Amino acid sequence: MPDRPDHSDGPGADELAALDAHWRAANYLSAGQIYLLDNPLLTEPLRPEHIKPRLLGHWGTSPGLNLVHTHLNRVVRARDLDVVCVWGPGHGGPAVLANSWLDGSYGEVYPDVGRDAAGMARLFRQFSFPGGVPSHVAPETPGSIHEGGELGYSLAHAYGAAFDHPGLVVACVIGDGEAETGPLAASWHSNKFLDPVHDGAVLPILHLNGYKIANPTVLARLPEPELDELLRGYGHLPIHVGGDDPLQVHHDMAVAMDTALDRIALLQHAARREGVTERPRWPVIVLRTPKGWTGPKDVDGVPVEGTWRAHQVPLSGVRDDPGHLRRLEEWLRSYRPAELFDDHGRPRPEVLACVPAGPRRLGASPYANGGLLLRELPLRPLEEYAVPVKAPGATRHEPTRVLGGLLRDVMTDTADRRDFRLVGPDETASNRLEAVLESTAKAWQEDVLATDEHLDRHGRVMEVLSEHLCQGWLEGYLLTGRHGLFSSYEAFVHIVDSMVNQHIKWLRTTRTLSWRRPIASLNYLLTSHVWRQDHNGFSHQDPGFVDHVLNKSPEAVRVYLPPDANTLLAVADHVLRSRDYVNVVVAGKQPCFDWLGLDDARVHCARGAGIWEWAGTENGGSPDVVLAAAGDIPTQEVLAAAGLLRRHLPHLAVRVVNVVDIARLMPQEEHPHGMPDHEYDALFTPDRPVIFAYHGYPWLIHRLAYRRTGHRNLHVRGYKESGTTTTPFDMVVRNDLDRYRLVMDVVDRVPGLAVPAAPVRQAMADARARHHAWVRAHGTDMPEVAEWAWEPSSRPLEP
Amino acid sequence: MPDRPDHSDGPGADELAALDAHWRAANYLSAGQIYLLDNPLLTEPLRPEHIKPRLLGHWGTSPGLNLVHTHLNRVVRARDLDVVCVWGPGHGGPAVLANSWLDGSYGEVYPDVGRDAAGMARLFRQFSFPGGVPSHVAPETPGSIHEGGELGYSLAHAYGAAFDHPGLVVACVIGDGEAETGPLAASWHSNKFLDPVHDGAVLPILHLNGYKIANPTVLARLPEPELDELLRGYGHLPIHVGGDDPLQVHHDMAVAMDTALDRIALLQHAARREGVTERPRWPVIVLRTPKGWTGPKDVDGVPVEGTWRAHQVPLSGVRDDPGHLRRLEEWLRSYRPAELFDDHGRPRPEVLACVPAGPRRLGASPYANGGLLLRELPLRPLEEYAVPVKAPGATRHEPTRVLGGLLRDVMTDTADRRDFRLVGPDETASNRLEAVLESTAKAWQEDVLATDEHLDRHGRVMEVLSEHLCQGWLEGYLLTGRHGLFSSYEAFVHIVDSMVNQHIKWLRTTRTLSWRRPIASLNYLLTSHVWRQDHNGFSHQDPGFVDHVLNKSPEAVRVYLPPDANTLLAVADHVLRSRDYVNVVVAGKQPCFDWLGLDDARVHCARGAGIWEWAGTENGGSPDVVLAAAGDIPTQEVLAAAGLLRRHLPHLAVRVVNVVDIARLMPQEEHPHGMPDHEYDALFTPDRPVIFAYHGYPWLIHRLAYRRTGHRNLHVRGYKESGTTTTPFDMVVRNDLDRYRLVMDVVDRVPGLAVPAAPVRQAMADARARHHAWVRAHGTDMPEVAEWAWEPSSRPLEP
C-alpha cells in the first residue's frame, strides 16, 4: 500500500479558497482571451474599443478544463507526480493557455507573454488573432500533445503516452461530445492493453457538461446507473463528481482526484510489488458541471449557462450593444480580478498556491515535449538481415518477412529501454512480421488460454482490430519521446486518413517551434497491398493513401515504394532513424524477386530513383524508350516487359528506371526531395516516350510530374479500380499494368520502329487472350507467367 | 401484447432436427465453396483434381453465420416477419451464398446456379474464382446490403435500414473482431436515435467466436458479468446463448430468438398502441460458438476448431497432402450430404422446412434491393427558394441557409412518407440549414429538458457527433430505398474516407447487376469549408475529400462547387433526383455574393462550366487571358481580380470562366462528364494563359486537365496547407489565392502587355503589404476588401 494519508475528508477551507482563486484566475484569463484587446486588468471601465472586433473562441468547455487543471496542479504538487494531461476538448484553448500562463511555463517559452500586465495583454490580444495563436490547444501550447479540434483521439493518445512510461500519470479530459465518436468509443478498451507494471496510468475524466454545439449529448442524458454500467462494462471504476456550487465541487473534485490517485497507486503497487496479475479495474472520474459555468446565465432572454448556447461566445454583441458590454464587464468582474492579480498583473500568491514547480508543471513537462526524452534507436547493421543477391531476379523472398528480422532485433535491443512498439490491426503475422514475436509478445491483459500463442502482459506488439487505436496509441507514444511502426493492410489505412492529417499538421507546426524538440517519425508499413488481395478482393483494394498524404505539408511527408527485400531494409533503416516525418512505406509480403544486393539497394534508396542499367538495352547510348516502375509488382511487370522487348524488338534501346522515393518526381520547389529538372531529364529524357508502371492510381504520377519537360511523353499505368477476388496476374491484366500491355504501350508510342510493330502487338494481344482463357479455366496464372523469371543478360536476346 | 404463444420451451425434436439439417446443409455448402472444383455431392471419393488449385475464403465465421441464418429463417416463417440481416463478418461469404442458394433466391437471380447438382457445382466453382464471385458477402449476393470486408459499419447500416421502416426487423451479426473497431463501438448508441413508433427494430447478434485472424478478441475474453454490464450500459437487454453441442445450441438459439422477438413486439406495441414514451431497452443476443465450428478439430498436431487458426482455410494442403485430402473428405461427409440433398442435388424437404417463402426469404427481401421500394422525392419548383438577382454581385446570401428552405419543404412533403433524412455531426444549425427544423425535429429518444429545442422522438434530422454514424446510418437508409443528405464540415468528412470508398465500390458493382435497382445517391453537402474556419483554424482546414473521391470509380462519383445560392439550389435539385452516385457538393455557409439568377444558374449548372461574359472584357473576341474559378471564395477573388484588371489594364481582353462540375475538366474517356477537347479548347483556349483559382489543392486541377492542349498554360492557385485562425481574406492571401496575387499572375504570364506591367505588379504588392499591416493591427480585413463588391459594367473602366 502507498504511504499516503487518507484524503477522504478533502482539503480544508484555506486550500479550497486557494483552489478557487486559481480557478477564478484561469476563468478570468480564459474569458479575457476571447474578448479583450486592451484593459486586461479592468483598471478602467470597459469600453467598446477594449473589445476585439471579431469574437472567436470557445467559452463553454473552458471553466471545466480550468477546474480539472486546477485540481491536477493540486495533486501533482501534493504527491510530487509526473502528470501530463490530454485535453480532449482542445477547442478550449483559452483554458489551457490561461493555465500555462499561470504556471509560468508560457512565459518561459514565449518571454513576451510573461506573468505581468504586459504579458497578460499580449496573451489576450494574440488569442485567435491574425499573426497570433490558434484558438485551440495546439502545438504552440506548452504542455500539449494533442490538438483536439477534430475530436475522437484524446483517450488513444493518452494511452499511447502512458505505455512504457511507468512513472507517468496521463490525465485525459474527454468531452461528452467527443465521447460520441467512434475512435473514442473504441478507446475505452485500451485498458485491456495497459500493463500496470511497465506502463504508466491513464486517468480518464469524462466531462459531462451536457451539450455539443447545438444538442445535448448522449452520455450526459443517460440515467446515472446506465452510465455507471457502461463505464464498468468498459472495465473502469467510476467516481462521480458534479454540481454548480464552486466550493462544493472543489471539495468533491479534490476527494475524487485523491481517491483515483490512491487507487492507481494501489493497483500499481499490487502489480509491481506484490505480483498481482489480475487485470486492474482503473478509476474513471465522471465530472458533471454546467457548460459555460460562471458565464452569463442568460442573454437576451434565453438561458446560456448550462446549455449549448454557451459553446462559443456567450455574449456576441459586445462592441455594439452597451447592454452586452455591461454584462461582459459584470461577468469579468465576478471573478474579482483585483484579488487575483496585483497591480502589475502578477498572480497573487494564493492563486499560485496549488501550482507545482519546474518540470512537474503541466505546461513544462518533458513528457509533453517528447523530443527531450528521445534516444537514438539501436539498429544493427543491415548486413545481418540482407538477402544475398547473386544475380538480379535469381531468388525470391518475402520482403516484410525479411524486415521482421530487423524488427525482432530492435525489440531485443530495446528490451530494457522499452521505447519501441509495433502496432497493427491484428495483422503482424498476416503481414509476415512474426519474427518480432521471437523477441517480445503481443500485449494482452485479459485471460490467456493454453491454446494462445505469443500473448503476454508485458508484450510490446500491439494488436487490436482498430486502425484508429493503432494510430492514436502510436501518436501518443511518439509524441512522448519513443519510436514505433504501424503495419497495416494498405486499403484500410484510409480509416485513419483524418488522423494522419492532424498528425501531419502537428508536425508541420512543431517544425517551426524551436522549443519543440524533434520526435521520431510516424512510420507506416503498408502491405497486403492492392495487387495481392487473393482472399478478399475489391473491398481490400485501395492504394490511395499515398495520394492522400502527398496532398499534405511536403516538409513532413515522405513516401517510399521499395521494390524488393533489400530495398525495404534500406528504407526501413532510414525511416526508423528519421525525425518529424510521416513516412509511408509500401511493400509486399508475398514472395518477390530479389533485384538488388544490399549495397546496391542502399545506393538506390539514397538516390530515390535510378537507372537499372542491367535491365535495359541502351548500352550507354540514348534510349528509344524509358520503362519506369514504382512498387514491387510494377517493377516485376516492367522487367518482364523489358525481357519481352529484348526478345521481340532486340534493336530497341530500352532504359529501365526504378523509383523508390516517389516525391523525387516532384519539382524541387514543391518538395524537399523533388529532383532538379536536369536530373529528371537525365533520368527520364526530355523527349523519349516514358511508360511508367505505378503501384497506385496512375494520375498521381502526372500530378507529381506535370511540370517536367518530358511530361507530354509520359504514359502511366496503374490501378484503376478494376478489383475483385482473382489471381495476381489477372489483377494486373484487369488494370492494364501487365507486361504484355506495357509492351503494347511501347509499340504504340515509339515512333519509327525498325521492326514492324503490328506482329509484336498481336503477340502481346495473343498472350493476354491466352491468359484470359487459362485463368478462367484453371483458376491459376498460366505457366508462362507463374514460372517467369528475369534472365540476366547484358546483350539483347536473339529474336 | 402480441398474440404469440409462449416460446420459452423452444422447438420440439422434429423441428430441431430440421433446423440442424438446414444448418448442416449450409455448412456443407460453405466448405464446398472453399474447396471443391468438382464432385460437389461427393458421389465419388475425393481426389486431388476435385480440389481448387487456390484455396481462398474464410471458414471460421461461416458456421456461426449459418446458425444465425437458419434461425432467422425459422422466426421469419413462424412469425411472418419482414427481416433483413446485415452480416458484419462479410468475409463469411460462403455462408450467405449457401443460404441464398438454399432459399432459392440465388437461382432466381442467377438461373445457372439453381438448386440442383449442376447449380451446386457452379456455386462451388465460382466462389473466389477468376470470373466468378467475390469471397465476401458482396453486392452480387442476393439479400445483402453490406459488404463487410472493411469491418466496422454493420450496426450503423442496420440502424439506417431500420429507420422509417416500422414493419422491418433488421438483424445484425456483429463479429467480435469487428466489435473492436471505433465505428462499431460508437454504433451501439444508435439505439438512442431509434423511434419505436416510426422505425423498425434492430436485433444485434454479437457473435463471440473468440478470435480474429491471429488473436483472441477483447469482448470474448471479458468475464460475462463485465460484458453484461457493457451491453446494459449500451442500453440493451442481453440474451446469452452459447455452446458447442449443436442440438442444444439450436434449442437455446431458438428460445433466444423468440425471447428477443417477443420483446421487440412488446416494446413496439407499448410505444405504438399504449403511448409509452420511455426509451426501450432493446434486446441483444450474445452468441458464443467455436470459431470454425464443425470443421477440423486439429490439423498437423495443433488445435484448429475453436481457435484463430480456423479463420481462413483450416486444411491448406489438400491437393498435395493425401492426409489433408482424407481429412477434408471426412469433414465434408460429417454433414451427411446424402441426407441433405437428393440424387439430383436438390435440398430435401426437411432441409427446407425452416425456409420462408417469396419475398420473406432473406435472399429475396425487397428491403435489401432498395431501389424496388424507392419513390421519387417530391421537390418543389426552385422558384420558391431562389434569391432574386438584379445584377451580379449586387446582393449577398448565405447559400446553405437558402438551401435550408428547400430541405424544409422536402421534410414537409415527406412527412407522411418518411423517406428523407438529413444527417450531420451536430452541425445542422452551424451549417445554417436550420430551416428544416421548422418542419421536423432532431431525432432524440433520451430525456428532453425544458430548455431543449427541436428535439423529438419522431424527428428526421439525425445529429450525433460521429461522422461514422452519420455515414453508416445514411448508407443503410439509402440502400433500403430512401433519400437523404449528409451535411458535414468539409475537413472532417475525411473521417469517412474509407467508408465512402466502400460505398462507391458497392455502387460501381451494383451498376453492373441488372437485378439491383438503382438507389438514391449519397449526397454530401460539405460546408464550413477551408476558407472560413475563423473560429477553429488549421485543424479544421482540409479540402482533400474531393481529391479522394475523384480517385474512385468515375461512373459513380460527381463533384460540384456551386459558387452562390442559386447555383447551390440548382445543384441540390439535381443531386437529390439522381441515382447510384456519390455526389459531393462543396458550398459556403457565410454570406456570399449572388452572381446568377435562377435561370442562369440552372443553365450554368447543367453545363457544369461556362464563360461569364458579363464579368470579362473580351467582348466576343479572343481573350488575352482566362481567369477561371471553381468554388465560392475563388469565384469572388477571380471577379475581384477581373475588376482590378479592368481598372489597371483596361485594354486586356479577359475571359472569366466558372466551373461548377469539376469532372468536366477531365478527358471524355476518363469520366462520363469529361468534356470533349474541342469544348475545353473553346472554353479555356488552346494557347492563352489560364489562371485558375480553385477551392482546394491546386494540383488536382492539373491532374484532371493534364491531357488538354492548353495544359502548359494552366496556372492554378488553391489551398496549400497554409492554415490558421485568421481573417477570411488573410486565409486567401496566405495561400496566394487572393485577387492581388491573381492579377500578379496575369501580369507575369501574359506576354507583351500594352501597358507596362511593373507598376501594376507593384500596386498589387502594395495592396498585399497594406493587408498585412492592417490585419495584424486591427484583426479584421481592411475596408477595401471587406467592402468590396462587383461593379457591373459592360465596358472597361477608365484606368
From TrEMBL, chains A, B:
CDD domains: TPP_PK. It comes from the Bacteria. It is an enzyme of class 4 (lyase). The keyword Lyase applies. Residues 14-372 form the Xylulose 5-phosphate/Fructose 6-phosphate phosphoketolase N-terminal domain. Residues 589-790 form the Xylulose 5-phosphate/Fructose 6-phosphate phosphoketolase C-terminal domain. Its cofactor is thiamine diphosphate. Keywords: Lyase, Thiamine pyrophosphate. It holds the Pfam family XFP_N. Its EC number is 4.1.2.-. Belongs to the XFP family. This is Probable phosphoketolase. The lineage of its organism: Bacteria, Bacillati, Actinomycetota, Actinomycetes, Kitasatosporales.
